[in-house]
Amino acid sequence: MDTLLHVKILLVEEVESSKICSLDQKYVSTAEHIINGESFQLVQQFIDRFKGKVTIKGEISTSSVLVALNDFLKLEIVKEGQENEMLYMAIALLQTFIQNNYTGPAARLKAVSGLFNITGSDISATNKALARSLAILGQPAYELMDDPLYLVLSLLLLEQITGQASLFDISQDQEVPLPVISAESTPGLLAVANWWRARALLTHLSLIPEPSGFQPSIVASIYQSIDLVHAIVKDLPENFNEDFKRQLYAMYYLEHVKCSLAINTEHLCLPSLTKVKKLTDFKFVMTGARATRTKFQQKAHAGLIILAESSIFQKFSISTRSSSPGTFALESDLLLEKPHFESVADEPLDEQIYSKRPKLDLDSGYGEDKLLPLALRQENIPKSLMDLDPNNQPALSNYDNIQLLLRLYTIKNTTPAKDPLVEEELTALLSRILYQDGDKNWSVFARSLWERSILETTKAKTIERGLLQMQSLVEELDLKIQSKLIPSSDEIDVVGRLSYIHQLPFVPRWELDSTLAEKYMSLGILKSAVEIYERLGMACETALCYAAVGDEKKAEEVLLQRIKENELDARAYSIMGDIKQDPSLWEKSWEIGKYVNAKNSLAKYYFNPPAKSGIEPNYSATLKHLNDSLRQYPLSFETWYFYGCVGLQCGKMELAAEAFSRCVSLDPHHALSWSNLSAAYMTLDKLKEAYSCLKRAVASDAQKNWKIWENYMLVAVKLNEWEDVLVACKQLVSIKRDKSGEGSIDLPIIEKLVELLVTSEYSEDPEKLSYFQKSCTEFICVTLPQVITTSARCWRMVARVELWRKRPWAALECHERAYRAISHNPDLEIDEKAWDDTVGACEDLVAAYESLGEMEGKYGPDSFVCKDWKYKCRSTIKTLMSKGKGRWDDSLGWDRLIEARSQI
Predict the structure, then answer these.
(1) To pair with 554 at 20 to 30 A between CA atoms, which of 131, 575, 748, 754?
(2) SMART domains in the record, alphabetically (predicted)?
(3) CA atoms lying within 13 Å on the CB side of residue 53
């Protein structure tokens, strides 16, 4: 039954006391407080109960504060059999920290002065020590956060409950055992505790600029398997509502996606997104529809739209008192508030989408397992979605809105920035969330407004609304800003704001404010940006702001002041090193905090030293620094990729193979990593492994990378995989034909394909032809003639295949084209080699006329391939001799022509 209460908390679902009367009412009341957004009341009771119990021995520092807290927990809190009570307290502390720093409004409790036996200036010093205790590998956590004590205590309690090693007092070189969760043997309550620990660690990671340390590995290990939910569900009552179980599984998959986004493994998001979509039976598709976007537009133009409908969890939407944050209207004399779509069925959808993305495969259907399932044609849209009114779609459940938002974040993290088509896709996703009727959850709706505002600040016609909306959302989090755009509201729905915070990527309130500063910076409003950074106490960002506009001297002053205030800020040292290109500063950063970016900067420095440094590239030093970086943070795809590239460059193929193997495990769809891994295997004479890697590369996003296809073709030739050779040849011609023309044809390899084809048995029954025969014939006889311009050799290959197909008339036409291609050479009258080549081509054509001319022609037994072949032979020879007369009369080629003419 304890597990049941915790599931209710996870789902933010009302506790029905009458149905679980066997439970201790104290725990029921505690759960109700957490579910109702009143965790701060439990924290206040905790502070009152243990007032002044924490005593710091000696001078106030990070270590002394942590020792005092650990002693307090061991004496007063951590007791055998009290794990359930400890877990409730850890949850309440975490939720209060999140309310104060992420969702608002802040619960103003005096935690430090209440728990610690201190007064006066010691309170501020203790808060600073607590904030510094949350630093990870030299990256300090945001120092002006509210009440870091709540998060520190929550993390310490969850470490005790789960029996895991503490991350607060672990050395950087120490190995940390990862939690193992079994569906059968792990108790449900322990699985719940691990789930909450993963949430707390993700909260911790959101306090630092970049993911680092052991935390990402631990979070990933907790979320890596669905056994986490199985372990919880097995301890639930047999009659527990199946819909709630389904909801729990859906929540797990959403949080797994959030975890992948937080630790920079976003390429692992799609499998979980696909599973939660099927689990919730969420139906949505991106397609095209004509839309009117301005007040004066007479004709609608093609645009992207998301058609979506929820089928499960609609009834589980958590009720809210204040439906949504304040929204700014566009108030434009030109643009409509939202596009007005015409009926989706008004015209073929492929015409609409084609104008947006001309290279799409219009024959592809509706793909379920894509980030954005796309219907290019009307018939590909699911029937249930086809009937929706595009201007008045039904409200979606919050779980489905979150799915759309998580897909948006995944697309942003895996596509180029400022790509117009990607921005259109993201706008379509956000429009589907924002332009729906009904109650809206504050957190989901505010996040959608925020992302729309970021997109709008890149466009001149919407930048004003975007900036105003961003500022208003920052203010609604209860920041202490002197002048506000909107009045404060007394009625704030804390439950609604906290309900889905663990499924959405964490964005602390100061990160919202700093993003606003970045926007000001991009618009050239330097003063406003610097004012925000200074108010937030972000010295490193202030320095980067100055460096971005070329004021490096001011940036250095800011960083020196920061280092003076906090000598352990490894990030500040590293940024100073980036500005001054001084290796000693990066070394100092690594020495004091094991800051991985410092090692990455050192590696880049020694890989490609600045000209003024006077040193030569040092690949050994580069590899050493990258190795140090990866030992501290092994989840960095970019670092592994650089490591592998350096290995390739300096000939260390085993090292390169290991590095690119790690790359493809982090991102299985990265074509260049697969290609580079194959290059390492080829050098190591592991052809089969190289071939397998190249197959993965070409199956990924490498459709336009001719180098990968060429490597694939060459390895396939070595392994005699001729069907794959044919596929590669076709793709190479498709990719390179526009720029290289017939240079895209690899003649020796295609000649080998032709040889294989014409030595096989031909059947006039198409059903008896093999796939290779059909595909190769189409390639040689249909595709290549569209590409060939001057190559007689290519035409002769086509002629061989046409003759194999028992089409002698087509073969003779190819011989004629081969002769015309070479006889039009402008060097014919000045270059004897060109003359001899043309004479040889003429002899070949005469031989073709002689051997093929009297065969049965295209129109049956009474026709000939070329009835007047003798006349054509003489005419061809005569024409060529007229071109060479007076210049090549005494050449051997001339004698050959006379000999050929005499034999007809």
Answers:
(1) 131
(2) TPR
(3) 16
Q: Read off the DSSP letter of residue 290.
A: E
3-state secondary structure of 136: strand
Q: Give the Å distances, CA to CA, from 391 to 294, 303, 337, 437.
A: 15, 13, 12, 11
Measure Cα distances from 464 to 330, 467, 515, 793 in Å. 8, 5, 16, 63
The crossing angle, in degrees rounded to 10, of helices 62-72 and 148-162 is: 50
- Cα(277)–Cα(293) distance, integer angstroms: 31
Considering 354-358, 802-806, 859-863, the range whose residues carry the highest mean pLDDT is 802-806
Q: Which of 745, 725, 727, 749 is nearest to 736 (CA)?
A: 745
DSSP state of 761: P
| Residue for token pair 């050192």 | 602
Q: ω before 140 within 30° of 0 (cis)?
A: no
DSSP string computed for 199-222 = HHHHHHHTTSSS--SSHHHHHHHH
Q: What is the per-residue pLDDT across 799-826, written as a single tens digit (0 to 9) for each?
A: 999 999 988 888 988 988 888 888 887 7
Angle between helix axes 242-262 and 188-205 (nearest 10 degrees) is 30
Cα 613 from chain centroid (whole Å) = 37
| Helices and strands, counts by H and E, the chain | 41, 5
Over the stretch 101-150, which tens digit does the pLDDT of each residue have? 999 888 888 889 999 988 888 999 999 999 999 999 888 999 999 999 99
- Is the pLDDT at 263 greater than 80? The verdict is yes
Residue 772 CB burial class (10 angstroms; 0-12, 13-18, ≥19): middle
Element (H, E) at 862: strand 860-864
- Whose tokens are 């001297």? That residue is 553
Task: Specify whether the CB–CB gap between 777 and 803 falls below 8 A.
Answer: no
Burial of 883 (0-12, 13-18, 19+ CB in 10 A): middle
In this structure, are residues 158 and 197 in contact, taking their beta carbons and an 8 Å threshold? yes
d(Cα 813, Cα 875) in Å, to the nearest integer? 16
Cα angle at 526 between 525 and 527, to 5 degrees?
100
Q: Are strands 335-341 and 301-309 parallel, antiparallel or unpaired?
A: unpaired
CA distance 565 to 350: 61
CA–CA gap between residue 820 and residue 590 (Å, rounded) = 70
Q: What is the pLDDT of residue 356?
A: 37
Of 849 and 641, more confident = 641
First vs last C-alpha separation in the chain: 103
468, burial (CB in 10 Å: exposed 0-12, middle 13-18, buried 19+)? middle
Beta bridge partners of 335: 294
**CA atoms of 866 and 854, how far apart (whole Å):** 6
More confident residue, 757 or 863: 757
3 state SS of 116:
strand
Burial class from Cβ neighbours inside 10 Å (0-12, 13-18, 19+) for residue 899 reads exposed
Q: Residues with Cβ < 8 Å from 674, sequence gap 6 or more?
A: 660, 664, 693, 694, 696, 697, 700
* CB burial readout 527-543, b (16+ within 10 A) else e: eebbebbeebebbbbbb
Q: Is 81 exposed, middle or buried (0-12, 13-18, 19+ CB in 10 A)?
A: exposed
pTM for the predicted model, two decimal places: 0.81
Q: pLDDT band for position 349 (50/70/90)?
A: very low
For the range 482-490, what are the long-range contacts, defined as Cβ-Cβ under 8 Å and sequence gap of 24 or more? 486/326, 489/322
Tokens of 140: 């300090």
Q: Residue 355's pLDDT is what?
A: 37
H-assigned helices in 61-183: 62-72, 83-98, 111-115, 121-133, 148-162
